[in-house]
Write a structure and sequence with these properties.
This protein has a domain of 121 residues. A hairpin with a 2-residue loop joins strand 2 and strand 3. It starts with 12 loop residues before the first helix and ends with a strand. The chain is an alpha+beta fold. The strands form 3 sheets. Strands 1-4 form a two-stranded antiparallel sheet. Helix 3 packs across helix 7 and helix 4 packs parallel to helix 6. The radius of gyration is 19 Å and the shape is elongated. Helices cover 41% and strands 11% of the residues.
Length: 189
């Protein structure tokens, strides 16, 4: 949609209408498969985190941290609506910018030990800082539903099969380059 955007950074009404029709269909799918594989691996490889989902509380904090660690989108394509001067050069109005959501969600200046999934982080502060659902006018309308689906899935799984765990070391998982999902995910219980 943005590739065809006029130089002023706007989309046509046809592009907007197409996006509006597509998002309600794509939204729930995006929070589930295939990007959720990283969340599954993280939860199933950490017994304490998995038990947290089976317990009486703490699930919301775990979901927020999982979203930070494993966002649905890796990056976001935008078109500059004005010239922006940066130390590395100037982005001109109308130029496309690919912002890395994954890098922002793992920025050590914002999140201490950013490579670790720590549900003990301040949930409210983390939710206000991570970009799993975007920001501003591009914020995901399905964010609440996505959070609810992730929490329900892991809570039901942890309560139904409390001893479920990965049956492979995280380092031995072979990941797909484009879809960020493993070919297999061996588990045991």
């Amino acid at each position: 949609m943005l590739c065809n955007a006029p130089s002023r950074g706007c989309t046509s009404s046809n592009d907007s209408a197409s996006a509006t029709r597509f998002e309600p269909i794509h939204g729930p799918h995006a929070s589930g498969h295939p990007h959720s594989s990283g969340r599954h691996c993280t939860v199933l490889s950490d017994p304490d985190l998995y038990r947290l989902f089976g317990g009486p509380s703490g699930q919301s904090a775990a979901v927020e941290e999982l979203l930070r660690c494993h966002s649905v989108a890796l990056s976001s394509l935008r078109v500059a609506t004005e010239d922006v001067a940066l130390p590395s050069g100037t982005i001109r109005m109308g130029e496309a910018v690919l912002a890395s959501i994954e890098a922002a969600n793992h920025d050590a200046r914002v999140f201490s030990t950013p490579l670790n999934c720590l549900p003990s982080r301040d949930t409210e502060a983390s939710a206000k800082r991570h970009l799993a659902f975007g920001r501003g006018p591009h914020f995901c309308l399905g964010s609440h539903l996505s959070r609810l689906l992730i929490e329900a899935a892991f809570t039901c799984l942890a309560r139904a099969v409390p001893t479920l765990r990965l049956d492979i070391d995280l380092d031995d998982i072979k990941w797909g380059a484009l879809r960020r999902s493993p070919a297999t995910l061996p588990v045991s219980w």
